[in-house]
Write a structure and sequence with these properties.
- The chain is an alpha/beta fold.
- The chain contains 20 helices and 22 strands.
- Strands 5-6-7-8-9-10-11-14-16-18-19-20-21-22 form a 14-stranded parallel sheet, with helices on one face. The protein has a two-stranded antiparallel sheet with strand order 1-2. It has a two-stranded antiparallel sheet with strand order 3-4.
- The radius of gyration is 37 Å and the shape is flat.
- The protein starts with 5 loop residues before the first strand and ends in an 11-residue tail after the last strand.
Length: 632
């Protein structure tokens, strides 16, 4: 805007003059560290206020002149007055001058307003945040971005083969520091000078960009000497369109792994979900002598390792592949968490120092289970599951009983606190496991198909599945040795296992300190006796003198045969209501059933369920206690 003065009074030449032209900084400075000087901002604020006062005074005088018979002071400086009996032509000319003056002042004021708007992007508070605070914000943003991406990858991996054909992931994923570095000079300086923003490397080599190796080299250079968290995922080898001609893809994957292995001394956590051939070739190229590599500590800082090799011959068909490359992790002094797709006795890994072990693809044979547990005598968490959730045959699954021998070698896992297991997959060996293992500190037993599985159609998936022949005596014996006075077990989850109410009473009597219970009946079949019988529900009612599970704080149930007693007759709802309130510990309750049964719930029952939740006595409450997905 112009800095020429604007005349307010022609008699004394009183003027108003802006202190400066008020031109906003060029927009390209937004990408720099520029922040407007305080004097410049103060001058703009002063001029805007002065012009506002001048416009307001001119408007008052103009309005006064429009009313005949009134005298008016035309200038506050020279105090010239226009008398009430002055010539009307003089008053008209003065009014026209004031009108033009107001237009000129308003135009200048609008330009100041536009200039102030242009200044706003330069004045946002985030541009004045100190670098240390910016680093902390960027670090949180990066972690959230990585978490979201890893959830997408997990969803992809848990839905073979459909998700492989219908990808919902971005074609190329770049971590947030790359975009933050393109915002402004200050942010770029912070991002490029903070190695911890680059210490997590996530590469989904599903659609490889040509610059993937350049990107990885930049990542490694910017992370400097910080410890690395590495996530490498490659599912292209399992795509239906994959052919042997696509060897270029394998070459790039091997180069990516080779680059990362050059920095093996910096690895802290690693997850390698790639084809076995690529992994084997890359490791053997980097460590030509595997025996020598296994004898030295190439991964001195590695704490967590998740390896999921995928065979071109098919998932779960790796019995014929050579896994000797695993020996490179044999001497990893800090390794505590290990996840493998399968177990073989000849594996050379530091099992005795592990605190957590997960086997994600369990074969039908379980001969390896006890040898594995014997070698992991310091383990605190064990998960034996099948990572690819699949609908099994609807036929009955029968557990194989086991008769203990005097020569059986009972062993102790003194630190085991969490045991997650797929009972049906290990049905031939579960009884032997219960008889021979002592776990004095065990706190959690979770069926891998229980409530922890984050699938929205769990009821439909479990419909029609049942497991009979549960080793009742072995499990009771196992529970009786879980801790001093049977007090250590806190969480128990059982799914689709055929059990009787009397047997459950015995289980609950051995677990008086249980705080979290997940119990799913056999769904879709009504030819089994109800688990939640009136006798069991009465024993669990808090109104009893010595109720079962007095410390229960979280209850998740799915009902089928017990639907009548639990919901229609409301014995189960009455039991839940007796356990909520100021003197009770129940804070979470979830009731699930098939959609066909949910339609039969009487309105009075629904009202009572609403009442339990709305009275505020349950902190968490899911779907108004009824989870009823549509039947596929």
């Amino acid at each position: 805007m112009s800095i020429d003065p604007i005349t307010l009074c022609t008699r004394c030449n009183h003027c108003i003059e802006p202190k400066s032209a008020h031109r906003p900084p060029p927009s390209h400075l937004l990408r720099s560290n520029y922040f407007p000087p305080k004097d410049e901002l103060d001058d703009m604020a002063y001029d805007r206020l002065a012009f506002d006062v001048a416009i307001r005074e001119a408007q008052i005088r103009y309005s006064t002149l429009q009313e005949s018979g009134k005298e008016c002071v035309l200038c506050n400086k020279c105090r010239v007055r226009l008398e009430a009996n002055v010539d009307l032509d003089l008053a008209k000319r003065e009014a026209e001058r004031l009108s033009g003056l107001m237009d000129e002042l308003s135009l200048a004021r609008r330009k100041m307003t536009q200039c102030a708007e242009d200044y706003k992007p330069f004045m946002v508070p985030v541009r004045r945040l100190p670098p240390d605070l910016l680093e902390h914000i960027f670090y949180i943003h990066r972690d959230n971005d990585i978490t979201l991406h890893m959830e997408q990858l997990s969803e992809l991996a848990s839905n073979y083969p459909l998700a492989l054909r219908q990808s919902r992931l971005r074609r190329v994923w770049l971590p947030s520091p790359f975009s933050l570095a393109h915002t402004c000079c200050l942010w770029r300086d912070v991002v490029l000078s903070r190695p911890r923003l680059w210490d997590t490397i996530v590469l989904n080599i599903r659609h490889l960009p040509r610059a993937i190796l350049l990107l990885l080299r930049l990542w490694l250079r910017l992370s400097r000497d910080t410890f690395l968290t590495v996530y490498i995922t490659d599912h292209v080898a399992l795509l239906p369109r994959w052919t042997d001609k696509d060897c270029h893809h394998n070459k790039i994957v091997q180069n990516v792994l080779a680059l990362l292995l050059d920095h093996s001394h910096r690895w802290r956590r690693a997850s390698l979900d790639v084809a076995w051939g690529c992994l084997d070739t890359a490791i053997r190229m980097h460590f030509p002598d595997l025996s020598a590599a296994g004898a030295s500590s190439n991964f001195p800082n590695l704490e967590s390792l998740d390896v999921d090799w995928l065979s071109r011959s098919g998932i779960g068909e790796s019995t014929s592949i050579n896994l000797s490359f695993l020996s490179i992790w044999q001497h990893s002094p800090r390794l505590r968490t290990l996840s493998l797709p399968e177990w073989f006795n000849e594996m050379e890994l530091p099992f005795s120092q592990l605190s957590s072990i997960t086997i994600t693809r369990i074969p039908d044979s379980g001969t390896w289970i006890l040898p594995m547990l014997r070698s992991c005598w310091n383990v605190e968490h064990v998960a034996l599951i099948w990572s690819f959730f699949r609908r099994r045959d609807q036929s009955m699954n029968v557990f194989t009983d086991y008769t203990p021998d005097d020569d059986d070698d009972i062993f102790v896992l003194p630190r085991l606190s969490s045991f997650q297991i797929r009972f049906d997959t290990l049905r031939q060996w579960i009884a032997q496991l219960f008889y021979l293992v002592i776990t004095p500190r065990l706190e959690s037993i979770v069926d891998a198909e229980g409530s922890p599985i984050p699938t929205t159609d769990i009821i439909d998936v479990l419909s029609g599945i049942r497991f009979e022949g549960w080793p009742e005596n072995a499990f009771l014996r196992f529970l009786s040795r879980t801790g001093p006075s049977f007090s250590s077990l806190r969480s128990l989850s059982l799914t689709a296992i055929v059990l009787s109410d009397t047997y459950l009473m015995k289980v609950f009597e051995l677990t008086p300190n249980l705080t979290d219970l997940t119990l799913y009946e056999v769904l879709g079949q009504n030819n089994y006796p109800p688990i939640w019988s009136p006798q069991l529900l009465q024993r669990m009612d808090k109104g009893q003198s010595a109720p079962l599970l007095p410390k229960l704080g979280s209850l998740h149930v799915a009902v089928e045969a017990s639907f009548h007693f639990f919901v229609v007759v409301q014995l189960g709802i009455a039991m839940v209501k007796s356990r909520v309130g100021s003197k009770s510990k129940l804070r979470t309750f979830t009731l699930r059933c098939r959609s066909e049964l949910a339609k039969e719930i009487p309105d009075i029952v629904m009202a009572r369920l609403h009442g339990i939740a709305l009275e505020g006595r349950l902190v968490e409450y899911e779907d108004l206690a009824i989870y009823a997905p549509s039947v596929v």
